[in-house]
Amino acid sequence: MPEIVSLASKIGRQLPSELVNFVRVAGELAANQGQSLYLVGGVVRDLLLRRPNFDLDLVLEGDAINLAEQLLQVRQGRIITHRRFGTAELQWDKWSVDLATARSETYVEPGALPSVSPGSIEDDLFRRDFTINAMAVMLNPNRYGLLIDLYGGRDDLEHKLIRVLHENSFADDATRIWRGLRYEQRLNFQLGENSLKLLKRNVSMLDTISGDRIRHELELVLEEEFPEKVLLRAKKLKVLPKLHPALKGDDWLAEKFEQARELISPNSPSVGLYLALLAYRLNAKESEHLISQLRLSKALAQILKDTHNLKAELDWLAQPGPRPSSIYRFLHDYSLSAITANLLACNSLVIYQHIQFFLDKLRYIRPSLTGNDLKRMGITPGPRIKEVLDLLHDARLDERITTKEGEIDLVEGWVD
Length: 416
Ligand code: CTP
Prior knowledge:
By secondary structure, this protein is of the alpha+beta class. It has helices at 8-14, 17-32, 42-49, 64-74, 121-126, 153-158, 169-172, 175-187, 193-201, 211-222, 227-236, 251-264, 271-279, 284-293, 298-313, 324-331, 336-345, 349-360, 371-376, 383-397, 404-415, and strands spanning 36-40, 56-61, 78-82, 87-92, 95-101, 103-106, 115-118, 136-138, 147-148, 161-162, 190-191.
């Protein structure tokens, strides 16, 4: 006889009351039409682990879009539906809840997205990546809170294990390789013995995954609290070279990621900064390859290009005593993440100090006078305005003037 476990009190304690009320109402509505509604996936895992997670995923044995539309009558908000997948996302106030129709999936070929058909909650749990993510909680009032744990997820949480549900899991969807490493390092768990063996055997299946999907996985890694732990583990398991063979997951990377956190604290470093550090030791050609392989967004691609262009020119900043305006002109066109990556990666104190001077002070300095002020003062509209503004900016940066009056005197001198 399987143990009967209720998560009703955990839901009450750990979720905000608005979400608790919402799932109760949703469960009642589903029950009224003879359907079953479940809380599934990551939030169930995190309820059991007492980790905060308010991203609710609900699965209905029935038409999820229909239920979402009914819920919209109760909770005023926004709904986004994907009819092809039978899913809906409800948003109200600061909350967002995903609703999906229970489904079964079959993988026609490795790496491709699965073909999907409506199914039971058992089917829906069986299609999932790991046992710890394959649990559900019943939300219908007559069995509210009942844990459905068909694959030993709760046991695995207790033993700190990441286990796949079946032998083909990584081959069906090799993004699970990255997901497995993420959970392992985030939770301080370990892949189970057989799962680790399967993962190693299927590393080559990462080649079947599109650049877009791999990029998404990498972005998720870089959004983790300690991304370097995942990258070092990925290096060890020969997963990292699948992103690019020249990437290194080593002590240098770990140190730089840690320094990035110290520098950016109390916020987390951006994905762009972490990515710039990860790609820092690639040469220009390798970096270009990574950009196209992962189909990086324009902004991320620019960060990587800037990082390498700046790195190539960085020695200029090693000279003693450049004018502040020269430091500003040298750095200001590069993206902030590229500049910060170079600050962290350079190993010259002088360069470090010059970049820090730019980041802490110079980048905020602006002249007080505007283009309109200059026109009023008799400067001919056109390129001359920009020239004068640049001269004022330089004078401010170099502290040759420190007040608006000083700027006015300077301009009046030029006009005469
Ligand atoms: N899932 C899966 N295989 C994937 C992606 C997702 O089986 N390749 C399932 C898992 O059950 C997962 C759920 O879909 O729990 C939701 O996916 P996602 O939001 O990525 O995972 P969470 O566990 O909710 O979130 P996180 O990783 O941020 O904790």
